[in-house]
Amino acid sequence: MSLPRTTAAAVALLLGAALMQPALAEKKYDPGATDTEIKVGQTMPMSGPASAFGNIAKVEAAYIRMINEQGGVNGRKINLIQYDDAYSPPKTVEQVRKLVESDEVLTTFQIIGTPPNAAVQKYLNAKKVPQLLAGSGATRFTDPKNYPWTISANPSYQSEAHIYARYILANHPNAKIAILYQNDDLGKDYVKGLKEGLGAKAAGMIVAEASYELSDPTVDSQMVTLKASGADLFYNMSTPKFAAQSIRKAAELGWKPVHILEVNATAVGQVLIPAGAENAKDIISVNYGKDPLDPQWANDEGMKRYKAFMAKWAPNEDANSGYATYGYSTAAMLVHILQRCGDELTRANIMKQATSITSYVPDLALPGMSVTTTADDWRINKQFQMMKFDGQRWVLFGEILTDDYKAD
Protein backbone atom coordinates (compact mmCIF):
# COMPACT_ATOMS: atom_id res chain seq x y z
CA MET A 1 0.00 0.00 0.00
CA SER A 2 1.39 3.42 -0.94
CA LEU A 3 1.23 6.43 1.34
CA PRO A 4 -0.79 9.51 0.35
CA ARG A 5 1.33 12.06 -1.45
CA THR A 6 1.15 14.63 1.40
CA THR A 7 2.10 12.00 3.99
CA ALA A 8 5.01 10.78 1.87
CA ALA A 9 6.28 14.33 1.54
CA ALA A 10 6.07 14.85 5.27
CA VAL A 11 7.96 11.62 5.95
CA ALA A 12 10.63 12.65 3.44
CA LEU A 13 11.04 15.98 5.17
CA LEU A 14 11.33 14.32 8.57
CA LEU A 15 13.90 11.84 7.26
CA GLY A 16 15.86 14.63 5.62
CA ALA A 17 15.83 16.65 8.81
CA ALA A 18 16.96 13.64 10.80
CA LEU A 19 19.82 13.02 8.39
CA MET A 20 20.85 16.67 8.44
CA GLN A 21 20.69 17.11 12.21
CA PRO A 22 24.02 15.48 13.09
CA ALA A 23 25.81 17.65 10.54
CA LEU A 24 24.20 20.79 11.91
CA ALA A 25 25.03 19.87 15.49
CA GLU A 26 28.47 18.47 14.82
CA LYS A 27 31.10 19.79 17.18
CA LYS A 28 34.83 19.31 16.91
CA TYR A 29 37.03 19.30 19.96
CA ASP A 30 40.70 18.88 20.73
CA PRO A 31 41.97 18.25 24.27
CA GLY A 32 40.95 21.10 26.54
CA ALA A 33 37.55 21.74 24.98
CA THR A 34 34.13 20.32 25.84
CA ASP A 35 30.50 21.38 25.61
CA THR A 36 30.96 23.39 28.80
CA GLU A 37 34.63 24.36 29.10
CA ILE A 38 37.64 25.77 27.25
CA LYS A 39 40.95 25.24 29.04
CA VAL A 40 43.51 27.97 28.42
CA GLY A 41 46.99 28.00 29.97
CA GLN A 42 49.38 30.80 30.78
CA THR A 43 52.70 31.47 32.47
CA MET A 44 53.42 34.93 33.84
CA PRO A 45 56.18 36.62 35.86
CA MET A 46 54.30 37.11 39.11
CA SER A 47 57.71 37.29 40.77
CA GLY A 48 61.30 37.87 39.63
CA PRO A 49 62.97 40.66 37.62
CA ALA A 50 59.94 41.33 35.42
CA SER A 51 57.27 41.03 38.12
CA ALA A 52 55.71 44.34 37.01
CA PHE A 53 54.25 42.35 34.12
CA GLY A 54 52.34 40.25 36.66
CA ASN A 55 49.68 42.96 36.71
CA ILE A 56 48.80 41.93 33.16
CA ALA A 57 47.89 38.43 34.34
CA LYS A 58 45.63 39.77 37.08
CA VAL A 59 43.66 41.92 34.65
CA GLU A 60 43.40 39.10 32.10
CA ALA A 61 42.07 36.77 34.79
CA ALA A 62 39.53 39.41 35.82
CA TYR A 63 38.39 39.81 32.21
CA ILE A 64 37.85 36.06 31.89
CA ARG A 65 35.86 36.07 35.13
CA MET A 66 33.62 38.75 33.64
CA ILE A 67 33.12 36.77 30.42
CA ASN A 68 32.28 33.62 32.38
CA GLU A 69 29.81 35.52 34.53
CA GLN A 70 28.14 36.69 31.31
CA GLY A 71 27.76 33.11 30.11
CA GLY A 72 31.17 32.38 28.63
CA VAL A 73 32.08 32.01 24.96
CA ASN A 74 29.37 30.35 22.88
CA GLY A 75 28.02 28.83 26.09
CA ARG A 76 31.36 27.55 27.37
CA LYS A 77 33.24 28.86 30.40
CA ILE A 78 36.93 29.64 29.99
CA ASN A 79 39.11 27.87 32.51
CA LEU A 80 42.22 30.08 32.64
CA ILE A 81 45.09 28.24 34.34
CA GLN A 82 47.92 30.57 35.37
CA TYR A 83 51.39 29.69 36.69
CA ASP A 84 54.22 31.91 37.87
CA ASP A 85 57.42 31.39 35.88
CA ALA A 86 59.31 34.33 37.48
CA TYR A 87 60.51 35.29 33.96
CA SER A 88 62.87 32.32 34.18
CA PRO A 89 62.99 30.25 30.94
CA PRO A 90 63.66 26.92 32.74
CA LYS A 91 60.60 27.52 34.90
CA THR A 92 58.58 28.45 31.82
CA VAL A 93 59.53 25.13 30.21
CA GLU A 94 58.48 23.23 33.33
CA GLN A 95 55.18 25.05 33.70
CA VAL A 96 54.24 24.92 30.00
CA ARG A 97 54.89 21.18 29.90
CA LYS A 98 52.55 20.88 32.88
CA LEU A 99 49.89 22.93 31.11
CA VAL A 100 50.08 20.79 27.95
CA GLU A 101 50.71 17.32 29.33
CA SER A 102 48.98 17.39 32.72
CA ASP A 103 46.34 20.12 32.53
CA GLU A 104 45.74 19.37 28.84
CA VAL A 105 44.91 22.93 27.81
CA LEU A 106 43.46 23.61 24.39
CA THR A 107 45.84 26.52 23.88
CA THR A 108 48.42 28.59 25.67
CA PHE A 109 47.73 32.30 25.87
CA GLN A 110 49.89 35.35 26.52
CA ILE A 111 53.03 33.76 27.84
CA ILE A 112 54.89 36.94 28.76
CA GLY A 113 58.43 37.83 27.75
CA THR A 114 60.87 37.10 24.98
CA PRO A 115 63.16 34.61 26.83
CA PRO A 116 60.23 32.59 28.28
CA ASN A 117 58.47 32.40 24.91
CA ALA A 118 61.68 31.47 23.11
CA ALA A 119 62.25 28.64 25.59
CA VAL A 120 58.96 26.91 24.75
CA GLN A 121 58.43 27.85 21.10
CA LYS A 122 59.90 24.69 19.57
CA TYR A 123 58.13 22.49 22.12
CA LEU A 124 54.70 24.01 21.50
CA ASN A 125 55.13 23.88 17.74
CA ALA A 126 56.24 20.24 17.91
CA LYS A 127 53.14 19.46 20.01
CA LYS A 128 50.96 21.55 17.66
CA VAL A 129 49.60 23.56 20.57
CA PRO A 130 48.96 27.25 19.79
CA GLN A 131 51.36 29.73 21.31
CA LEU A 132 48.55 32.25 21.11
CA LEU A 133 49.08 36.00 21.46
CA ALA A 134 52.62 35.58 22.79
CA GLY A 135 53.66 38.53 24.91
CA SER A 136 56.72 39.49 22.89
CA GLY A 137 57.46 41.46 19.76
CA ALA A 138 60.53 39.49 18.72
CA THR A 139 60.29 38.66 15.03
CA ARG A 140 60.73 34.94 15.70
CA PHE A 141 57.18 34.94 17.09
CA THR A 142 55.74 36.13 13.78
CA ASP A 143 57.35 33.54 11.54
CA PRO A 144 54.63 31.23 10.17
CA LYS A 145 57.02 29.42 7.85
CA ASN A 146 59.12 28.06 10.71
CA TYR A 147 56.67 28.33 13.61
CA PRO A 148 53.10 27.86 12.33
CA TRP A 149 51.67 27.48 15.86
CA THR A 150 52.99 30.80 17.20
CA ILE A 151 51.41 34.25 16.85
CA SER A 152 52.41 37.33 18.81
CA ALA A 153 50.14 39.94 20.34
CA ASN A 154 52.83 42.62 20.40
CA PRO A 155 54.06 44.83 17.61
CA SER A 156 57.32 43.63 16.12
CA TYR A 157 60.23 45.19 18.00
CA GLN A 158 61.91 45.77 14.68
CA SER A 159 58.81 47.54 13.36
CA GLU A 160 58.72 49.74 16.44
CA ALA A 161 62.42 50.45 15.97
CA HIS A 162 61.81 51.46 12.34
CA ILE A 163 59.39 54.11 13.62
CA TYR A 164 62.01 55.45 16.04
CA ALA A 165 64.56 55.55 13.24
CA ARG A 166 62.13 57.50 11.08
CA TYR A 167 61.60 59.97 13.94
CA ILE A 168 65.35 60.36 14.57
CA LEU A 169 66.16 60.99 10.91
CA ALA A 170 63.40 63.58 10.63
CA ASN A 171 64.08 65.43 13.90
CA HIS A 172 67.65 64.64 14.98
CA PRO A 173 69.54 63.79 11.77
CA ASN A 174 72.94 64.57 13.32
CA ALA A 175 72.34 62.77 16.61
CA LYS A 176 75.07 60.81 18.38
CA ILE A 177 73.22 57.74 19.60
CA ALA A 178 73.94 55.58 22.66
CA ILE A 179 72.06 52.29 22.95
CA LEU A 180 71.13 50.29 26.05
CA TYR A 181 69.56 46.91 25.34
CA GLN A 182 68.69 43.62 26.98
CA ASN A 183 71.03 40.87 25.78
CA ASP A 184 68.40 38.61 24.22
CA ASP A 185 66.07 38.53 21.20
CA LEU A 186 64.12 41.50 22.57
CA GLY A 187 67.07 43.85 22.80
CA LYS A 188 68.82 42.58 19.69
CA ASP A 189 65.67 43.05 17.59
CA TYR A 190 65.38 46.67 18.74
CA VAL A 191 69.01 47.31 17.81
CA LYS A 192 68.67 45.55 14.44
CA GLY A 193 65.50 47.50 13.63
CA LEU A 194 67.13 50.84 14.45
CA LYS A 195 70.12 50.09 12.26
CA GLU A 196 67.84 48.98 9.42
CA GLY A 197 65.79 52.16 9.75
CA LEU A 198 68.84 54.46 9.87
CA GLY A 199 70.33 52.68 6.90
CA ALA A 200 73.71 53.97 5.73
CA LYS A 201 73.72 56.64 8.45
CA ALA A 202 73.68 54.07 11.28
CA ALA A 203 77.42 53.53 11.44
CA GLY A 204 78.12 57.23 11.80
CA MET A 205 75.29 58.04 14.20
CA ILE A 206 75.61 55.19 16.72
CA VAL A 207 78.55 55.96 19.01
CA ALA A 208 78.04 53.47 21.84
CA GLU A 209 76.18 50.25 22.66
CA ALA A 210 75.85 48.55 26.05
CA SER A 211 73.88 45.44 26.97
CA TYR A 212 72.74 43.96 30.26
CA GLU A 213 71.70 40.52 31.44
CA LEU A 214 68.43 39.86 33.21
CA SER A 215 70.45 38.62 36.16
CA ASP A 216 72.34 41.93 36.51
CA PRO A 217 71.43 43.80 39.71
CA THR A 218 71.69 47.22 38.06
CA VAL A 219 72.66 48.96 34.82
CA ASP A 220 74.60 51.72 36.58
CA SER A 221 77.95 50.83 35.01
CA GLN A 222 76.42 50.66 31.55
CA MET A 223 74.91 54.11 32.02
CA VAL A 224 78.27 55.59 33.05
CA THR A 225 79.85 54.13 29.92
CA LEU A 226 77.08 55.42 27.64
CA LYS A 227 77.23 58.94 29.05
CA ALA A 228 81.00 58.99 28.58
CA SER A 229 80.53 58.31 24.86
CA GLY A 230 79.36 61.88 24.34
CA ALA A 231 76.01 60.73 22.96
CA ASP A 232 73.16 63.24 22.84
CA LEU A 233 70.40 60.71 22.07
CA PHE A 234 69.71 57.74 24.35
CA TYR A 235 67.98 54.77 22.70
CA ASN A 236 66.76 52.88 25.79
CA MET A 237 65.47 49.42 24.93
CA SER A 238 65.11 47.91 28.40
CA THR A 239 62.39 46.14 30.39
CA PRO A 240 60.60 47.90 33.29
CA LYS A 241 63.02 47.30 36.19
CA PHE A 242 66.08 48.36 34.20
CA ALA A 243 64.24 51.19 32.47
CA ALA A 244 63.43 52.75 35.85
CA GLN A 245 67.06 52.29 36.95
CA SER A 246 68.44 53.85 33.77
CA ILE A 247 66.14 56.87 33.98
CA ARG A 248 67.20 57.50 37.59
CA LYS A 249 70.88 56.98 36.80
CA ALA A 250 70.82 59.37 33.86
CA ALA A 251 69.44 62.05 36.22
CA GLU A 252 72.10 61.28 38.84
CA LEU A 253 74.80 61.62 36.20
CA GLY A 254 73.37 64.90 34.93
CA TRP A 255 73.03 63.35 31.48
CA LYS A 256 70.14 64.89 29.54
CA PRO A 257 70.06 63.41 26.04
CA VAL A 258 67.01 63.05 23.84
CA HIS A 259 65.59 59.91 25.43
CA ILE A 260 63.67 57.26 23.45
CA LEU A 261 62.12 54.45 25.51
CA GLU A 262 60.57 51.25 24.17
CA VAL A 263 56.81 50.91 24.60
CA ASN A 264 56.86 47.94 26.99
CA ALA A 265 58.59 50.04 29.65
CA THR A 266 56.32 53.10 29.50
CA ALA A 267 53.91 52.36 32.38
CA VAL A 268 53.63 55.55 34.40
CA GLY A 269 52.89 54.00 37.80
CA GLN A 270 55.22 51.03 37.48
CA VAL A 271 58.23 52.63 35.74
CA LEU A 272 58.19 56.41 35.39
CA ILE A 273 56.96 57.36 38.86
CA PRO A 274 59.44 55.00 40.60
CA ALA A 275 62.17 56.49 38.41
CA GLY A 276 61.08 60.01 39.34
CA ALA A 277 58.47 61.75 37.22
CA GLU A 278 60.70 64.81 36.76
CA ASN A 279 63.56 62.56 35.65
CA ALA A 280 61.27 60.97 33.06
CA LYS A 281 59.92 64.22 31.64
CA ASP A 282 60.24 64.56 27.84
CA ILE A 283 60.98 60.88 27.24
CA ILE A 284 59.69 59.82 23.81
CA SER A 285 58.04 56.54 22.90
CA VAL A 286 55.16 55.17 20.83
CA ASN A 287 51.73 53.82 21.61
CA TYR A 288 49.00 51.88 19.86
CA GLY A 289 46.31 52.19 22.51
CA LYS A 290 44.40 54.84 24.44
CA ASP A 291 45.96 56.05 27.68
CA PRO A 292 43.47 56.24 30.59
CA LEU A 293 45.33 59.31 31.87
CA ASP A 294 44.71 61.21 28.62
CA PRO A 295 41.66 63.49 29.10
CA GLN A 296 40.78 63.36 25.41
CA TRP A 297 39.32 59.86 25.98
CA ALA A 298 37.07 60.89 28.90
CA ASN A 299 33.88 60.42 26.86
CA ASP A 300 35.17 57.66 24.59
CA GLU A 301 32.84 54.64 24.64
CA GLY A 302 35.66 52.10 24.58
CA MET A 303 37.41 53.84 27.47
CA LYS A 304 34.15 53.97 29.41
CA ARG A 305 33.75 50.21 29.01
CA TYR A 306 37.33 49.67 30.12
CA LYS A 307 37.00 51.84 33.22
CA ALA A 308 33.68 50.25 34.18
CA PHE A 309 35.31 46.83 33.84
CA MET A 310 38.27 47.82 36.01
CA ALA A 311 36.03 49.33 38.70
CA LYS A 312 33.90 46.20 38.96
CA TRP A 313 36.22 43.32 38.12
CA ALA A 314 39.74 44.52 39.01
CA PRO A 315 39.25 47.23 41.63
CA ASN A 316 42.59 46.56 43.30
CA GLU A 317 44.61 47.07 40.11
CA ASP A 318 45.85 50.40 38.76
CA ALA A 319 43.38 51.28 36.02
CA ASN A 320 45.75 53.96 34.70
CA SER A 321 48.53 51.47 34.06
CA GLY A 322 49.56 50.46 30.56
CA TYR A 323 49.81 46.90 31.86
CA ALA A 324 46.12 46.98 32.79
CA THR A 325 45.06 48.30 29.38
CA TYR A 326 47.28 45.70 27.72
CA GLY A 327 45.77 42.89 29.80
CA TYR A 328 42.25 44.07 29.01
CA SER A 329 42.97 44.27 25.28
CA THR A 330 44.74 40.92 24.98
CA ALA A 331 42.03 39.11 26.96
CA ALA A 332 39.39 40.67 24.72
CA MET A 333 41.36 39.49 21.68
CA LEU A 334 41.46 35.94 23.08
CA VAL A 335 37.68 35.99 23.52
CA HIS A 336 37.23 37.37 19.99
CA ILE A 337 39.29 34.52 18.53
CA LEU A 338 37.47 31.85 20.56
CA GLN A 339 34.11 33.29 19.52
CA ARG A 340 35.16 33.02 15.89
CA CYS A 341 35.95 29.34 16.44
CA GLY A 342 32.27 28.57 17.09
CA ASP A 343 31.83 24.87 17.87
CA GLU A 344 35.06 23.87 16.13
CA LEU A 345 37.33 24.17 19.12
CA THR A 346 40.41 22.59 17.65
CA ARG A 347 43.96 23.86 17.86
CA ALA A 348 44.15 24.16 14.09
CA ASN A 349 40.99 26.26 13.97
CA ILE A 350 42.27 28.56 16.69
CA MET A 351 45.29 29.36 14.51
CA LYS A 352 43.07 29.70 11.43
CA GLN A 353 40.82 32.22 13.17
CA ALA A 354 43.72 34.13 14.73
CA THR A 355 45.32 34.59 11.32
CA SER A 356 42.21 35.68 9.41
CA ILE A 357 40.90 38.58 11.50
CA THR A 358 39.31 41.40 9.51
CA SER A 359 39.12 45.01 10.71
CA TYR A 360 38.62 44.17 14.39
CA VAL A 361 38.58 47.39 16.43
CA PRO A 362 39.55 46.88 20.10
CA ASP A 363 37.96 49.15 22.71
CA LEU A 364 41.27 50.85 23.40
CA ALA A 365 42.71 51.09 19.89
CA LEU A 366 43.66 54.60 18.85
CA PRO A 367 41.28 56.12 16.28
CA GLY A 368 42.18 54.91 12.81
CA MET A 369 43.72 51.68 14.07
CA SER A 370 42.27 48.18 13.65
CA VAL A 371 43.45 44.58 13.59
CA THR A 372 43.63 42.60 10.35
CA THR A 373 45.63 39.40 9.94
CA THR A 374 46.09 37.43 6.75
CA ALA A 375 47.80 34.27 5.60
CA ASP A 376 50.95 36.21 4.72
CA ASP A 377 50.88 38.82 7.50
CA TRP A 378 50.30 37.55 11.04
CA ARG A 379 51.08 40.84 12.79
CA ILE A 380 48.31 41.75 15.25
CA ASN A 381 49.68 45.28 15.74
CA LYS A 382 51.62 47.20 13.12
CA GLN A 383 50.45 50.79 13.65
CA PHE A 384 51.91 53.37 16.03
CA GLN A 385 51.66 56.97 17.15
CA MET A 386 54.49 58.90 18.76
CA MET A 387 54.11 60.20 22.32
CA LYS A 388 56.04 62.26 24.89
CA PHE A 389 55.86 62.16 28.70
CA ASP A 390 55.00 65.59 30.15
CA GLY A 391 55.85 64.73 33.76
CA GLN A 392 52.37 63.42 34.55
CA ARG A 393 51.11 61.55 31.52
CA TRP A 394 51.95 60.59 27.95
CA VAL A 395 50.87 63.07 25.26
CA LEU A 396 50.34 61.78 21.72
CA PHE A 397 51.68 63.70 18.75
CA GLY A 398 51.99 63.27 14.99
CA GLU A 399 50.09 60.99 12.65
CA ILE A 400 49.26 57.29 12.82
CA LEU A 401 52.32 55.52 11.40
CA THR A 402 52.22 52.10 9.77
CA ASP A 403 55.38 50.07 9.35
CA ASP A 404 55.54 47.95 6.22
CA TYR A 405 58.20 45.63 7.60
CA LYS A 406 57.53 41.91 7.27
CA ALA A 407 59.71 39.10 8.56
CA ASP A 408 61.49 37.17 5.83
Automatic annotation (TrEMBL):
Keywords: Signal. CDD domains: PBP1_ABC_ligand_binding-like (cd06343). Pfam families: Peripla_BP_6 (PF13458). InterPro entries: Leu-bd, Peripla_BP_I. This is Branched-chain amino acid ABC transporter substrate-binding protein. Belongs to the leucine-binding protein family. It comes from Rhodopseudomonas palustris. Residues 37-390 form the Leucine-binding protein domain.
